[in-house]
Specification:
This protein is an all-alpha fold. The chain contains eight helices and no strands.
Length: about 180
């Protein structure tokens, strides 16, 4: 609610993506009374949000390396942490020193952002809807939404939701 009005007030492009937090908000905080305090609080909370998200995402990959590759938790954690740090450093440097290093006209950060936001998220959503509707099936779908029948939900609503999930959602995601 704060970033996009500020984007237009400072003449930035809304297509700039996550970089807006680091390009536009510093200008906003500079204009505010006690801006240093508010920016410190905002970026501290942002760091906490990033770290908690990172831990939950880290855990999935660590579990994979433990279960499928036989690595110990310590080795899997260390490996994933090193990969994330290297990717983070390269992403950060692509907004500064490595800004001129481009592939298909995009910086390293922009490539990772494109892959995650434009490919992985839609593909994951589409595959999830296909998995739930076509592999798990309607019984498990209904069971999950109704907590094994403990929550009363309108059957017409459930049937409509399942129809959308099975046929419309994958096609809509594919079109988008």
């Amino acid at each position: 609610m704060v970033i996009f009005p500020a984007v237009f007030a400072y003449g930035a492009s809304p297509e700039a993506g996550p970089g807006l937090v680091f390009r536009v908000l510093p200008n906003v905080f500079n204009q505010m009374p006690l801006g240093v305090l508010w920016s410190s609080i905002f970026y501290l909370v942002l760091i906490i949000a990033c770290l908690t998200s990172l831990m939950s995402l880290h855990e999935v990959v660590i579990a994979y390396f433990m279960d499928k590759r036989g690595l110990s938790r310590r080795k899997a954690s260390l490996l994933i942490t090193i990969v994330v740090i290297v990717l983070g450093i390269l992403s950060s440097l692509s907004m500064g020193k490595l800004n001129d290093l481009r592939l298909f006209g995009k910086t390293f950060f922009d490539i990772l952002d494109f892959i995650s936001a434009s490919i992985c998220l839609p593909l994951g959503g589409m595959l999830m809807s296909i998995f739930v509707a076509w592999i798990l099936g309607k019984d498990k779908f209904v069971s999950g939404l109704t907590n094994d029948g403990k929550i009363v939900v309108n059957k017409t609503l459930l049937n409509g939701a399942f129809f959308l999930l099975k046929y419309i959602v994958p096609m809509a995601i594919l079109i988008i």
